[in-house]
Amino acid sequence: MPQQAYFASRALRALVTCAFATIIAFGLTGCPAGPATYTGCQGNTHCYGIVQYDHPVFGTYQVTMVPQQLAGGDGHISDEMWVLDTSTKCSPNNPCWIEVGEVAGADQSGCNFPANETHFFWADQRPGSKFFCHDFGKVQNLSGFGFNIPVNVAVLSLQDGNFSVVIYDGPSTNLNGGSTHNSMQMNEGEAGLEVEGTNSASAPLNPFSSMFYAPLGSGFYNVVYENNTGSVTLNSPPVNASWIGGIPSSQNQGAAWVTTCCTSN
Amino acid sequence: MLHPRHLLGSLLLGLVLGGCATTPGPVGALAPAPHAPPIGTKITGPTPLLGSPAIPPHLAGTPSFTVADAQQYVMTHKLPFGMPDGARPAIARAQFLISRDAAVIIDEPTGFADDHPLCVVELRGNFSVHGPKNYVATFPRAILIFDATTGNLVIGGGMADGPPSGGPTPRG
Predict the structure, then answer these.
(1) pTM to 2 decimal places
(2) Which of residues 31-90 of B touch A (CB under 8 A)?
């Protein structure tokens, strides 16, 4: 096993153990005995386990997550990050946004991910009512990437109406998308899990950590780490999520918003 | 700058120091997480997309399928959009284009080299996609782009109504 994967998997196993200890200790939830069935996550109402941070306009947003084998069930499920411009309407009833992460299953996403495959993807809803989903492909088929190997997902404003959407985990392993002709101004970041459907979706524990933003034009420098637990949206069940490892701060970027799915309701 | 494994190490340490609780716990002196791509990382141009299986290739070379195959696919498969019950879209365009021309249609890079062949299918109907926090965006035009080599669906989405865009260079 590559050293990177080795360390990551050790840490992840410990994380999973610790998370389940938390579950037992606090009685937050239980493990599903079999494929879960759930209601309230269909059609135009999806279920979430996300944290949200609102800021003045920023230029970069990044979150660290750990790719996992997902199952889309009869809908879809994703671990991802969103950045939004809540001050601008990109279509009559919606803000502008860019999203990036991993997903299994397809519904109303624009892409057609198989339910039993986990893909990296990104999508943008741009001014002028233009939405497009971009399917990077199966995580295992992308050189340098794999399950249990942490990745950073980031969106950078290039300040000329262009954005770079990046997934990276090492010097030679990055995936990049270009969102162009896009005048949105990021002022909100979100991270976590989304699920749609009625049964059989699943997502192992995934820690979202080291969330930061940076001023316009500063790229990955002058970053400011999220230093609080943000605004939580949690539809539980079927989604389970909680902060583990304390409260995020500039000294505790290891604090993680840990999500998993799905339990029956 | 730290490697991602150090980040996970920090996370683990945080879990231990934090008592593995959902309530605030003591915070140790954790090492800073990486805040920049590792040294040597080249944030390259858009990455070619592998996509998801869609149209089975059955022709030697590229394109590996026909325009008729693409039309049949969109008329016989569940599409990744919300649509009124029972509605089937109308096909407004189905043609092979080079990536540069497909990019003009969607108004952003496809991720492929300019001369890479793609199959673009434009549909008319009532389409919706789902975004964060249950935002739902609706469109009268949907675009599906298939890799002409693999038949995989690589890009899909929707746009506001408007005249046909782009100056396509038909192929195949």
Answers:
(1) 0.85
(2) 32-47, 49-54, 78-82
